[in-house]
Design brief:
mainly alpha, 381 residues
Length: 381
């Protein structure tokens, strides 16, 4: 039964691969510096590695937003997010999978009567604003440094072309790893509380239940990359503003850096241990990161009117409507599957284990009178 319910997570993973692969290799493929097949192979391999090796960090914040505590509920949440992303992918808009899953979880919270963690929601929503701006700033700085390096070293045109191709490939690989590490929480995060997996030992290696889920989700993302990502790559790569190969490379590097900042547990630990403000581990939108970087480059090179704002407006409207659509689809679907198929889509809070303080009171009420006044009993309470 768990395998059946997991299919919606696989659908969401496929949708993410079909849509978000454009963010790491879209500019490279559209500028014809990297072939689509090469991009798809590299993206698939490193998305899986990033998901399995570094995917745990961002999933904690998503879990705080809403702990989906029934497998049928997790199925509907993932399905609603996947359907929203799929519809936007059909329209060739690079939507945010992060926003889709957040909207779907809020739909579950509304249906189940669970409270929304306002602190977690605020933290996630803030990244939706910070992410494209930060990516644009990083892209501008990297582009200026690249231009300074090229002009100072006077690199021959053919050698520059070779360097740029390798830079695009390596940036895409790093971006794919960061995409898997940051966004796998969107795909499999809702299944973590209800996962039936046990730790799997393979020789000297072991895979935790979360890593097994992330591996399955990573494979689903890879299938999406191969089967349906090419059209969205072309939208991102050449639809917003025309990019040179060097600018395309800078865009992918800026995107990768932003995703790394919001998914690295090591960086968070390093900053905290040195008394510095830590960066929240949040599944940010890779679409927003790459669009922000593309706009930053466009504004730097040719000014405000070089950017095709009509296309940008369409993309931004997709970012706004995606979580709303996901929340509505999630709420209606939960009602349907609960009342038509008689599936438990959430566990009532009344049936959960009582809090520790209440447990102590209940235990004390059942004690013999003599034992209640025992000093040792009072100390342990």
């Amino acid at each position: 039964m768990f395998s059946f319910f997991l299919t919606s997570g696989l659908f969401l993973g496929w949708s993410l691969g079909a849509n978000d692969a454009s963010n790491v290799f879209g500019t490279a493929v559209a500028s014809k510096m990297v072939r689509f097949r090469t991009a798809a192979v590299c993206c698939s391999i490193f998305v899986i590695l990033g998901a399995v090796m570094s995917g745990a960090g961002a999933s904690h914040t998503l879990g705080k937003l809403g702990a989906v505590n029934a497998i049928a509920g997790a199925f509907i949440v993932a399905f609603s997010a996947a359907l929203s992303v799929y519809l936007m992918t059909k329209a060739r808009f690079p939507v945010s999978t992060s926003q889709a899953i957040v909207g779907a979880i809020i739909g579950w919270n509304l249906f189940s009567g669970s409270s929304v963690d306002q602190a977690a929601l605020t933290k996630i929503a803030m990244t939706w604003l910070v992410c494209p701006v930060l990516s644009g700033i990083i892209a501008v700085v990297l582009y200026q440094l690249s231009a300074l390096f090229i002009n100072t070293c006077r690199i021959h045109m053919f050698r520059l072309d070779l360097y740029t191709r390798w830079s695009l490939l390596v940036a895409g690989i790093c971006g794919s790893y960061a995409l898997g590490a940051n966004n796998i929480a969107n795909v499999m995060g809702v299944f973590l509380p209800v996962s039936p997996f046990e730790t799997l030992f393979i020789g000297p290696f072991s895979l935790s239940p979360a890593q097994q889920l992330f591996l399955i989700g990573g494979i689903a993302i890879a299938v999406g990359v191969f089967t349906y990502s090419r059209q969205v790559m072309m939208t991102v790569g050449e639809g917003i503003v025309e990019l040179t190969p060097v600018a395309a490379s800078v865009v992918v590097w800026a995107h990768s850096i932003v995703l790394f900042l919001f998914s690295s547990q090591s960086l968070e630990t390093f900053l905290a241990s040195n008394g510095l403000p830590s960066i929240p581990l949040v599944p940010v939108s890779s679409s927003q990161a790459v669009v922000g970087a593309v706009i930053g480059i466009g504004l730097l090179k040719k000014g405000f009117w070089s950017v095709k704002w009509k296309i940008v407006g369409g993309i931004v409207s997709g970012w706004v409507t995606t979580p709303v659509i996901a929340a509505v689809v999630s709420f209606i679907s939960l009602f349907f599957i609960q009342n038509v198929f008689q599936q438990e889509v959430y566990t009532s809070q009344k049936t959960l284990s009582p809090p520790p303080a209440l447990e102590k009171k209940l235990a004390r009420a059942q004690m013999p009178e003599g034992l209640k006044n025992n000093p040792i009993t009072k100390i342990t309470e």
